[in-house]
Amino acid sequence: MVHAARRGIAHAARSVRRAGAEDWAALRRAPRRTVTAEALAGALTAALGLVPLLLVHPDRPVLAVLEALYAAFLMPLRRHRPVLAVLGTGPLLVGPNVWTLAVVPLIVSAATRRIAPPRRAWHAVGAACALIMVLTAAGSLVRPGAWLEELAGNGLSAVLLVLLPALAGILLGRRRPLVSLLRERNAYLEQARSLTAAAARMEERTRIAGEMHDLLGHRLSLISVHAGALELAAARQAPPLAGRAELLRTTAGTAMEELREILGVLRREDAEPESEGHRGTREDIAALVAESRQAGGTVELDWSVADTADPSVPTRHSTHRVVREGLTNVLKHASGAPTRVEVRGTHREIEVSVTNEAPRERRHPQAGNRSGLAGLEERIALLGGSFTAGPLPDGGFRLAAVLPARPNGITLAVPPPTTGEAAAGSPGAPWGGGASWGGAAPAGARAPLSGEVLTWPRVLGAGCASALVILPTVTFLIVLLTTAALR
Fold it and tell me: What is the pLDDT of residues 451-476, one digit of tens each?
């Protein structure tokens, strides 16, 4: 028997050492903020049990001081070892320090909230109540007196300070998974909504691409074929017009290539036109000017962009759009008028303008609806730039824009969908190991659970019920501590 007792003591000592090592490792992994908060909670608990002893002297001051320090030790234990924390509240109810009773409901409710399943929490609460009765009976043997009254008083304290807070903690423990499931369900629905919207956009883009291919592609192909035939006829019958016919054919071919690129972008959401990387460069602007000259315009290019300037892709694309729109308007409304394209830039901003003089011959300009200018103004406003367009006093027209070289946080792309916050960690997570300590788990994409348990009345009902349950405990504590202070 002695040998068995020694083995039991050795096994218990090894278990205590192992538990201590695990607690120390978990404490080192915990965030600094968590450790600070727990240390502050323990210090406040010790102060609550020790400071009143200076004003109201107990019968056994040494035991009262030890009880206050013991309560401070239980406070951080409620998170990492909740079952032991519930069991450890038993000696506080039978001790001589009545001020430590104020932290018993806090410890019990916080600990039972982290014990799963609830049946295990009720077992721990039952064991704590049994321990209170045993300690009360043992104390009556040491100090004979009215032990029945003391047993009844401690029993009432166990009901109000242990059973009711445990019920509130279990209700709150059941509420936390419901809130976590609501968050997970919201994240899942948000992700599903984003995917549905993306699929709808892709379907609409595919439909638009098909319509453009069937209508514009057919028309451009006819223009290219007839322009080729016109070029051959002009080469034989009217050689001076052969260059214009060739320009018409090459322009139609270029339009077909650009249409194919746009159709590829529409059919693939992550695709970009192959020519997008060269848009807005000096070679690109010079090519636009050369095309206008071939069409019969008198266009000059003034390029004075600093070598240190490195404009972003949206800025270069907008520069290309401004020059192209300006030259197109000149060809439509003031064909043959002398035109000047200016592009100036530094490392901070890019200035681009297209200015034409009054047309030398009176012509009927083609009608327009200014949709191109409105689109340019909107595009440049998204980049944080300024845009002006209007007639000049001499009868000409000027189109100008000032663009930031590097727009801050401005993009023309649609941002990717975001997912909601993930579910909180499971009850009973160790130091810093779960969402109960401020961490957040990555959002999952699995289907949500049944909607019957994910209702706000259930979630709010648990909090309201726990508040109603804890009211008798608060009232009892106020009466008890007031009586002790006035004694």
Answer: 444 454 454 555 566 667 778 777 87
Spans of the chain below 70 pLDDT: 1-6, 8-17, 19-28, 30, 142-146, 213-215, 218, 265-277, 361-371, 408-467, 487
Strand partners, 380: none
- Number of C-beta neighbours around residue 265 at 10 A: 15
Tokens (6 digits) for 217 = 């592609």
Dihedral of CA 407/409/410/413: which sign?
A: positive
The pLDDT, as a whole number, for residue 239 is 81
* 300 within 8 A of 356, measured Cβ to Cβ: no
Q: Which pLDDT does position 27 carry in this prediction?
A: 62
What is 275-313 written as a DSSP string?
GGGGTTSHHHHHHHHHHHHHTT-EEEEEEEE-TT----H
| Alpha carbon distance 429, 88 (integer Å) | 20
Tokens of 468: 């109603």
* C-alpha distance across the termini of the chain, in Å: 51
- How many CA within 13 A on the CB side of residue 10? 6
Strand order in the sheet with 298-305: 298-305, 338-345, 349-356, 397-404, 386-391
C-alpha span between 313 and 311 (Å, rounded):
7
Residue type, 415: P
Cβ(92)–Cβ(64) below 8 Å: no
Cβ-contact 405, 349 below 8 angstroms: yes
Stated as kind and residue range, the H or E segment containing 477 is: helix 456-486
